[in-house]
Amino acid sequence: MLGMKKGFTLVEMSLVLVIIGILIGVFVIGEEIVENARINRVIAQLNQYNAAISDFKQTYDQLPGDFSKATKLWGSVSGSCLHVPGTGTQTCDGNGNGSVEYDNTAEPFRQWQHMYLAGIIQESYTGASTASSGSYGLSKAGVNVPRAAHEEESVIQMMYVTSAATWAGSRDRHAYFIGNAENYTGYVGRWHGVSFTPVAMMSLDTKLDDGMPYQGEVLNMNGSGYTPNCTGGVYNSVAEYDTSYDDLACVAIIDAKFY
Q1: Are 186 and 215 within 8 A, CB to CB?
Q2: Where does a domain end: 99, 119, 138?
Q3: How high is the mean pLDDT in each 10-residue block of the chain (259 residues)?
Q4: Are residues 46 and 73 in the same domain?
Q5: 171 and 200, same structural domain?
Q6: Which helix or strand (DSSP H or E) is residue 205 part of?
Q7: Considering the entire predicted model, what is its pTM?
Q8: How many angstroms separate the CA atoms of 181 and 146, rounded?
Q9: Which of 77, 195, 199, 252 has its C-alpha lying 20 to 30 A from 179's C-alpha?
Q10: Do the Cβ atoms of 239 and 223 come closer than 8 Å?
């Protein structure tokens, strides 16, 4: 009869489902491409900083941040080296012991300022904690430490890891720490916050190392209090990234390579 509405045929419905499937596939592939690009940018950052630290060490025979003659070149901060940025080029000396130490020192913050003042990197950093007091320095992405390329609030710290740090693989070496400085309750301003999804962290680990969260040169920060969802609650050498968990869950610790 004229005027009767005609339903979809099986062929038409099949075509619609095919189109929907294609669109979903394109979306998923697009997400993977974007995520892969983010991880590649982080790797490029690490390569850049390895080269910058190497250049500084070759020029001044000491590591940035640990540099014991910085104030002779650029002037001295008046006040606490950990808490006072200084004016102009004013900075602080490191202790020159060969390590960029974290606990109770300004060295992890001054290192980025030293490299900027030396003309080795273009981004300027304050060189001091964002807090006006306290024994541990606080970080802010793009202010006193670099912003990680993959995530707006995530920071890149470079410092010496001691063998006592079980959460960092119990090894003595310099490493980059990449974590969100804003999302870990009780530690706002420190790098302890989760910054990568397990899929992204596995991608980073696989590109740089062995793809295993607690082996090799790329690690997830170990501990149920920090990253309970990154490896499904398993924290040993045979643990795997829990790729079924799709939210931020991991903190990266990556061996520095500037020697």
Answers
A1: no
A2: 138
A3: 60 72 61 82 97 97 97 97 95 96 89 98 96 87 97 94 77 92 86 94 96 95 88 93 96 91
A4: no
A5: yes
A6: helix 198-208
A7: 0.87
A8: 11
A9: 77
A10: no
